[in-house]
Amino acid sequence: MKSKKLFGAFALIAIGIILGAVLVSGFGWIRPGFAGINLGAKNPPVNLNVDANSFSQAFIEVADKVTPSIVQISVVSKNENDPHKDFFFFPFRDFEMPKEQQGSGSGIIMSEDGYILTNNHVVENATQITVQLFDKRKFDGKVIGTDPLTDLAVIKINSSGLPLAYLGDSDKLKVGQWVMAIGNPLSLASTVTAGIISALNRGQLNLIKDSYGVENFIQTDAAINPGNSGGALVDLSGAVIGVNTAIATRSGTYIGYGFAIPINLAKSVAKDLIANGKISRGYIGVQIREVDAALAKSLGLDKPTGVIVEGLVDDGAAKQADVKRGDIILEIDGIQVDKPNQLQSYVASKSAGYKVKLLLWRDGKKVEKTVTLKPKNEQEEVATARNEEKESKEDNSGGTVKFDNIGLTVKNMTSREREQYKIENGVMISSVEAFGKAQTQGLGTGLVITKADKKEISNVNELKSIIDRKKGQAVLIEVVDRQGTSRFVGIEIPE
Question: Model-level pTM?
Answer without folding.
Answer: 0.74
